[in-house]
Amino acid sequence: MERKDIMSKHDTAKKGPHKEAPEVEAEGAKSLNHPKKAAADAANAAKTDAVSAEQAEDASIVAQEDAFAQEIAALKALASQKEELASKKEAEAKEHYDRLTYMAAEFDNYRRRTQKEKEKLFTDAIVEVSGAFLPVIDNLERALKAAEAVEAPEAVSLRDGVAMVMRQCIETFGKLGVQEIEALGATFDPNLHNAVMHIEDDAYGASEVVDVFQKGYRYKEDTVVRHAMVKVAN
Q1: Which of 69, 159, 177, 183 could cross-link with 228 by S-S, CB 3.0 to 4.6 Å?
Q2: Environment class of residue 228 by beta-carbon count within 10 Å: exposed (0-12), middle (13-18) or buried (19+)?
Q3: How does DSSP classify residue 197?
Q4: Over the stretch 48-88, which tens digit does the pLDDT of each residue have?
């Protein structure tokens, strides 16, 4: 029994390798096909990675474009706000400029009007005061004419004193701008002369002043303090 068992085991051992050979060959074939599959898998993986990288790059570009678009939109909005603010400030500046220009023009008109009013007040004061002194000058002139025929030393001294006062009055009037109106021998001017008598005489020209009854005075060539009272010929 023991020998048979040993023989049977020996036979089984001999037959075993022949039965297991096909499995060993299949595994070898599998091992030969494995590098190709690995290469294919690696290629597929590489393609997938490339696609993923490209997609990631595209996504990054899109994100950058979106960021740029948002930034541009923000800049446009800011520029619009600044432009609107600038337009508003420009309108306000124009309004202030127009107002200042109007105020400057008003002030200039006020200054001119005030200056004219001051000059008119001063002129009116000069005319009024000098007009009040004219009768005094008239009386001094009459006194001088009356004293011309007197030969007494006392009268001559008095006449010289009156003449000196007369000259001082005329000089003071001249400093104020008040001057005598030229009348005798001049052509009659209704703006300067007051004709109280008229004669017809071929020895004189037309509308010639031949006599002065009362002297006239004016202030600065354009304002009459008193018209000259005259006699006119022809």
Answers
A1: 183
A2: buried
A3: E
A4: 777 677 788 878 888 888 888 898 999 989 998 998 999 99
